[in-house]
Design goal:
166 residues, mainly alpha, two-stranded antiparallel ribbon, elongated
Length: 166
């Protein structure tokens, strides 16, 4: 597995997120994605810490690691924003999380928390995510979710960030 240090190459074009980033750093990328709503804005350590239940100091440390790996642009006092590469990985991770939540909600009538959905989505192979998406009637080519008022994803709505993508 790769780490946030970018040891697996400068640009990741893999079909599975663990070829691009370890699960922990990926969790932060997805959190940044949800907090900023996919827009070109910066996220503060406190907002990410609140979302993930970690201390801002730990968030700042991860921001530095993500910056070093070319996945985010971190500036002290200004926060962090995703780079193009980081945004690509974050969208994939967020989409996987949404596909899992949508499947559990629609097919199993079970509400899955964001953290559990992230872990499952991170672990499943691409074909598994595609199948879950098909089972809830939402093809892979379309955005799975958008950002709600609570910062969580929900099925069937495209975020502003995804609206720009075909």
């Amino acid at each position: 597995m790769a780490s946030a240090s970018g040891r697996r190459g400068e640009f990741c074009t893999a079909t599975h997120p663990d070829h691009c980033v370890d699960r922990g750093p990926g969790r932060y990328l997805a959190a940044i994605y949800w907090v900023v709503g996919g827009a070109d804005r910066r996220a503060r350590p406190g907002a990410i810490g609140d979302r993930l239940g970690v201390e801002p100091a730990s968030v700042t440390e991860m921001f530095v690691r993500l910056d070093d790996a070319g996945l985010a642009d971190y500036e002290k006092q200004r926060g962090v924003e995703l780079t193009e590469r980081g945004g690509t990985v974050a969208r994939e991770l967020a989409w996987r999380q949404c596909a899992v939540r949508a499947f559990f909600g629609a097919r199993l009538d079970a509400e899955l928390d964001a953290g559990t959905a992230y872990r499952i989505g991170y672990t499943l192979p691409e074909q598994g995510i595609e199948r879950l998406s098909e089972l809830v009637g939402h093809p892979v080519e379309k955005a799975c979710c958008g950002s709600g008022a609570d910062g969580d994803c929900f099925f069937g709505v495209r975020s502003a960030f995804d609206a720009a993508d075909p």
